[in-house]
UniProtKB/TrEMBL annotation:
Catalytic class of the enzyme: transferase
Keyword Nucleotide-binding tagged: yes
Protein name: Probable nicotinate-nucleotide adenylyltransferase
Domain Cytidyltransferase-like: from-to ranges: 17-194
MF term (GO), any: nicotinate-nucleotide adenylyltransferase activity
PANTHER family in UniProt: NICOTINATE-NUCLEOTIDE ADENYLYLTRANSFERASE-RELATED, PHOSPHOPANTETHEINE ADENYLYLTRANSFERASE
Organism: Salinisphaera hydrothermalis (strain C41B8)
EC nos: 2.7.7.18
InterPro entries, per the entry: Cyt_trans-like, NadD/NMNAT, Rossmann-like_a/b/a_fold
Catalyzed chemical reaction(s): nicotinate beta-D-ribonucleotide + ATP + H(+) = deamido-NAD(+) + diphosphate
Length: 229
């Protein structure tokens, strides 16, 4: 939902922002969101599917399909919410615009933008990237086996803003970089798409209802693939 959503108990705790193509959403996304909500004591984690991501190829699934899958996946979990504001907005999906919109909706809640350390390393290539720190904290996700070579400007921000104290996310509205290492769960949307295209089964990598919908719609299927369920 793009409109302001009432948080549980009118909480002023931080709100997590987890963006991505979600093409498709899977247990890796969902479990990470739950771990963050619990460990960082977030009021909510909002899953925001990209509309037109400027730094990667366009999603294979339609905006409506990706939003529906998230809605189905989180239907029984109040700590997670679908936020479709990027799908509703025309033009490229710049994160700074999304955060400005969220800040207007939630003026009293700290915002925590969640991203991988490898993504942060290239942050200076983003549109108006320095303004991100005016709107939100950044929570860096440690991914086993991935190394990152930081752009000099990103390295400088990391050195200046890093904190190991989760309370800093609660006591400031924005500007902190917090490092977080979730329990490893190696699942990727690209791997799921590859399995489906080759006719192999990705069962148990994503919610069953979403896999069933994908197979019924034949999205990601190559012309010669056959389901091996």
């Amino acid at each position: 939902m793009s409109a302001k959503q009432v948080l549980m108990n009118d909480s002023k705790a931080p709100i997590g922002i987890l963006g991505g193509t979600f093409d498709p959403v899977h247990h890796g996304h969902l479990r990470l969101a739950m771990e963050l909500a619990t460990d960082l004591k977030l009021a909510q984690v909002r899953l925001i599917p990209n509309g037109r991501p400027p730094h990667r190829e366009q999603p294979g699934a339609t905006p409506g399909q990706r939003a529906k899958w998230i809605r189905v996946a989180i239907a029984d979990e109040p700590r997670l919410a679908l936020d479709d504001r990027e799908l509703m907005r025309k033009g490229a999906s710049y994160t700074v615009d999304t955060l400005a919109s969220l800040r207007a909706d939630f003026p009293d809640n700290p915002l925590c933008l969640i991203m991988g350390r490898d993504v942060f390393a290239k942050l200076p290539s983003w549109h108006e990237w320095r303004q991100l720190f005016d709107y939100a904290h950044i929570v860096l996700i440690e991914r086993p086996g991935l190394s990152a070579t930081y752009a000099p400007e990103a390295a400088a921000e990391l050195e200046q803003r890093s904190s190991e104290n989760v309370d800093d996310l609660h006591h400031n509205l924005a500007g902190v970089i917090y490092n977080y290492a979730p329990p490893p769960l190696a699942i990727s949307a690209s791997r799921i798409r590859q399995l489906i295209a080759s006719g192999a089964s990705p069962r148990y990598l994503l919610p069953a209802a979403i896999l069933d919908d994908i197979m019924d719609s034949e999205i990601y299927r190559s012309p010669t693939s056959e389901a091996k369920e």
